[in-house]
Design goal:
alpha/beta, Nucleotidyltransferase, domain 5, six-stranded mixed beta sheet, five-stranded mixed beta sheet, 15 strands, 25% strand, binds beta-D-glucopyranose
Length: 254
């Protein structure tokens, strides 16, 4: 088990659920149960804060400001401010989110984009570890998140779920995220043909050396990754849906 100084709490706020755990940062693994509460309807800042407090209370760490806390959020995050709101309340646009959580929780936090921190987790402890060249992690969930990593260094806030698909006049994520599969009750094959379009397009734009697929559905990677025909190798995130929690915690400790 990691010493007290090499553990931190990661909280991953998603469009559907808010997940948190204490993370052992020697090993890059969860050291506690994973606590999950639903993301409040409308995902307004105050309601999200209340839900995050519930997660921290359940983990038994809310009264311990010595345990570092990282929070991941599904939006562009720059200098602690959220600058977009694809699957959350529009109140987050141009919002001093980091300060809001710090004031509300009474402690310092580290705050970043959810896919970016998942990318950090995979660089430090997973599929991108020691991988040179261009690695592109995508999370398939309510939206599509992206983390672009070049020679181990993250280029933050790439937002590649929002590349446009001319044929359906909309964002890639509304066509190819896991939520589209659920909403439209697609078969694995039908969903994979949408992913084929998406990954081929992104492959054309970036010529990556490796694709990593995260998000909750990555635990079923064997159902859809073998259906994709790409020149770029594509693998599931080693930490599956926990990559966001682990990466948020890793960021908190620096
Ligand atoms: C957001 C991204 C986020 C992704 C995954 C997108 O809709 O714009 O910031 O990383 O969803 O949650």
């Amino acid at each position: 088990m990691a010493s007290k100084t090499n553990r931190a709490v990661g909280v991953d706020i998603g469009g559907t659920g808010i997940k948190g755990a204490i993370v052992d940062l020697d090993q890059g693994v969860l050291q506690s149960d994973r606590i999950k509460v639903p993301t409040p309807k409308g995902a307004e800042p105050q309601d999200v804060l209340t839900a995050v407090k519930e997660v921290l209370d359940t983990l038994g760490v809310s009264g311990d400001p010595d345990v570092h806390l990282g929070v991941a959020f599904p939006a562009i995050v720059k200098g602690g401010r959220t600058l977009s709101a694809a699957n959350v309340s529009e109140k987050w646009i141009g919002f001093e989110a980091e300060k809001f959580f710090e004031d509300g929780l009474g402690r310092d936090i580290h705050f970043a984009n959810d896919a970016d921190v998942a990318g950090i987790a995979e660089v430090r402890f997973g599929a991108a570890r020691g991988h040179d060249g261009l690695v592109l992690l995508t999370t398939l969930g309510t939206g599509i998140g992206s983390a672009l990593i070049y020679n181990g260094v993250l280029v933050p806030n790439t937002e590649l779920g929002h590349v446009q698909r001319a044929k359906h006049k909309g964002d890639a994520e509304s066509y190819a995220a896991y939520s589209a599969m659920e909403r439209e009750e697609l078969s694995w094959e039908d969903w994979a043909s949408r992913l084929q379009w998406y990954y081929e397009y992104v492959q054309f734009l970036f010529s990556p050396d490796l694709f990593i697929v995260g998000g909750g559905v990555s635990k079923h990677a064997d159902r859809f990754l073998p259906l994709l025909k790409l020149d770029t190798p594509i693998v599931a995130a080693v930490h599956r849906n926990n990559a966001g929690i682990i990466g948020a915690a890793a960021l908190a400790l620096g």
